[in-house]
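Appendix B. Worked example

We walk through a single record from start to finish. Start with the input: the chain for Dehydrogenase FUM7, Pseudocercospora fuligena, length 418.
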Amino acid sequence: MDYRISSTAGPGGEVYRPANSSGYPHISYGLPFHIACKKHVAATFQASRIYLIASASLSKNTSYVKLLQSALGDKLIATRYGIKPHTLWSEILSITSEASSLQTDLIITLGAGSLTDGAKIISLAIANNAETFSDLDSLHSGSDWSKKRPDLQPPKIPIISIPTSLSGGEYSFLGGGTNDNDNVKYGFGHPCIGPALVILDPELTTTTPDSIWLQSGIRAIDHCVEGLCSLQATKESDEVALAGLRLLVPGLSRCKASKEDLEARHDCQMGVIQAMKVVFEFGVPMGASHGIGHQLGPLGVGHGETSCILLPAVCKYNEGVNLERQKKVVEVFWEDEKVAKGLADAGLEREDATLSDVLDVYTRSLGMPRSLRDVGIEGEEKMNLLAENSLKDKWCGTNPRALKRKEDVLEILEMVRG
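Next comes the structure step. The output line below is what the pipeline stores for this chain.
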């Protein structure tokens, strides 16, 4: 199946369709983002009191925010410029208070993942009259973001997300927010529902720094790879994971070669949809790249960077239990002529290259970090703390070769110490 095209193109070349079999969210592409947004504000949401959360860097460095503000006209009642990385509770409560007092009926985000996470939690907070840290503390999902919360009111204010990275959070109901007091990031799951509409515009993403775009793309590859390597994968989950990889692997390589390759950027955006399905539609548990990576976040390392550093080592660690599944993933990287040439030029041979080696060479070809030292994580104290905290993450427990002891985690960390 070709996940890049659809037969539902409408007037002006827009494609508007569900992203997933559940019918939620819808995606729109084929129109400039501000034109698509204006259209759906009126036709789909009938909104008249819009709260915009816009990337601070987009506002400072481009005219895109003003373009959207102009398109929304007098329906726009307020704009918030930027949310800090990891989505602080203090900022969530500040926006919640303002958006609630203004009787907001639609939230729009223009930017990367922190804005999307923030909007999900804000919509939930407004529905449950959250005003304090204590209130937010009662809304998050604790250690199990999949559990139902019938005691909470579901969000009533819909969200349009216009993403500028490949983080993929717009296709998940889960929002992550960090408590300023303890610097712990908490997941807000059910009854969050995520954006109702995701507007994709490849040209808009050319403003995103290459480092952010490519790192977030590796994160999407991580979803696919850990999904394919999971011992709980299914035929259906494998299909979408392979489809995602076949879009992302050549797509990111082309984006690295040319920032203006809009077709490659669109392919990457389509690949992210498939990557997110692996986890959130088919429920395939991730492994140690995600599990250990979650603990690197509080140490100041971005999600994309964690995947760049950890995924090859995790695959090496798992070879003894899922080697045949890994071999199927390796083949995807050799399918694209240019990617294959890069692997061969680095000295790899198709017949005996391991997934760990292929991922290492591919990630380096994008100019991404490959060690903990590259991102400033050094010293025995940090390594031991990282190992201990990782054991608390459920996805370390669902790694194909389960991490049960601190020494198991340290075995992986030693491979990427740098």
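Two observations about the output. The CA atoms of residues 156 and 196 lie 11 Å apart. The chain has two domains: 11-202, 209-415.
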